[in-house]
Amino acid sequence: MVEVDLSEFEGKPQRINISLPDTLIKRIDNAVKGNTSYRDRSHFLAEAARHELKG
């Protein structure tokens, strides 16, 4: 599988505020630390959103 950066087609990133339980944030942070596919927490959440919105 080839990874394609779609950021130039999706537009400029925008800052948003969300609230998540502490334990979920810790799980996300651990997933990011343990996987070089994710640059940071925001990248992880963007990928999760893309996965859920695929259609």
Report on this model:
The protein is mainly α. It has a domain at 19-31 and 40-55. Helix content is 53%, strand content 0%. It is built from three helices and no strands. It has helices spanning 7-10, 22-33, 41-53. The radius of gyration is 12 Å and the shape is globular.
Low-confidence stretches: none
Question: How many β-strand runs?
Answer: 0
The coarse overall form would be globular
Mean pLDDT: 91
In angstroms, what is the radius of gyration?
Answer: 12 Å
Oligomer: single chain
Question: What proportion strand?
Answer: under 5%
Main β-sheet: number of strands, strand sense, barrel status?
A: none
What is the helical fraction, as a range of percent?
40-55%
Number of helices: 3
Order of helices and strands: HHH
Distance between the termini: 19 Å
Assign the structural class, choosing from mainly alpha, mainly beta, alpha/beta, alpha+beta, or little secondary structure: mainly alpha
What are the defining features of this structure?
about 55 residues, mainly alpha, 3 helices, about 55% helix
Q: What topology emerges from the helices and strands here?
A:
Elements: H1 7-10, H2 22-33, H3 41-53
